[in-house]
Amino acid sequence: MQTLAVLSLRCPKCGGSLRGAEQDVVFWCPNCAVPCEVVGRGFVARRGAVAAAEPGATLLYLPIWAVGVRWKIRLADESRGRLLRGLPPIQWVYVTGFNLTNASYFGDPGLLYTQRGVRLEAAEASGRRVAGCVRGVEDALAYLEPHLLAIVDRRVDVTDATLLLEVGEAVLWGVPFLDEGETLRDGVLGLSYPAAALMDLDAIRAAQGAP
After folding, report:
1. Which of 11, 20, 69, 71 has its CA at 20 to 30 Å from residue 129's CA atom?
2. Angstrom distance (rounded) from CA 111 to CA 56
3. Range of the domain at 169
4. Looking at the domain assignment, is residue 6 inside a domain?
5. Is residue 186 part of a domain?
6. pLDDT tens digits, residue range 60-78?
7. Does 53 fall in a domain?
8. What is the total count of domains within the chain?
9. Are the beta carbons of 147 and 114 closer than 8 angstroms?
10. Residues 78-94: tens digit of each pLDDT
11. Residues 52, 30, 20, CA angle at the centre, nearest 5°?
């Protein structure tokens, strides 16, 4: 019979309180600025950073993984390789770490960041409250190949393609979203999402002290 483990939501480094929603598996310590992922019966510290934001705005910091990659794609018909010329270099693949309903309709932030080659700039992280993350590192890595193939597929059919992928470090970013009440506006690309599209939004607002 399997025994359930009960974890105290306390940062293993400083003992500070960790807050999050029901489905979260990574919790951000606002004191240490360290994301703590539930692994087995304990927490594992992950690398984290907070992205720069507009001053004076009402912000929610939402989690997005960034994974460094080196990759190459091979097509069975090498003559089609010319269709990939001009493809922007992609050094980071981003994976959305919060629950967004119907991301294919509203737009998946992680995929959009990857498509546009976003390079996030770090700001002071101490004291920032970043929402909990529903995807751990291993779950995030599962999105690397689909995201890259989706981008390539816009230029050439990838049915017979072989993706060669080398995975580097993973960083969990707290990305600023401007809370405008009925909408949330991405502080990096300026894209807006209906507030109703974000699951657990009430819990996220409460955890970050937003009105």
Report:
1. 69
2. 28
3. 47-199
4. no
5. yes
6. 999 999 999 999 888 877 7
7. yes
8. 1
9. yes
10. 777 777 777 778 999 99
11. 105
The pLDDT assigned to 171 comes to 97
Say if 127 falls within a structural domain.
Answer: yes
Three state DSSP letters for the chain: CCCCCCCCCECCCCCCECCCCCCCCEEEECCCCEEEEEECCEEEECCEEEECCCCCCCEEEEEEEEEEEEEEEEECCHHHHHHHCCCCCCCEEEEECCCECCHHHHCCHHHHHHHCCCCCCEECCCCCCECCECCCHHHHHCCHHHHHHHHHCCCCCCCCEEEEEEEEEEEEEEEEEEECCCEEEECCCCCEEEHHHECCHHHHHHHHCCC
Q: Locate tokens 């974890």: which residue?
A: 7
Report the DSSP beta bridge partners of residue 48: 172
Which stretches of the chain score pLDDT less than 70?
1-7, 55-56, 58, 209-211
Q: What pTM did the predictor assign?
A: 0.91
pLDDT of 49 reads: 94
Give me 49's structure tokens: 């950073």
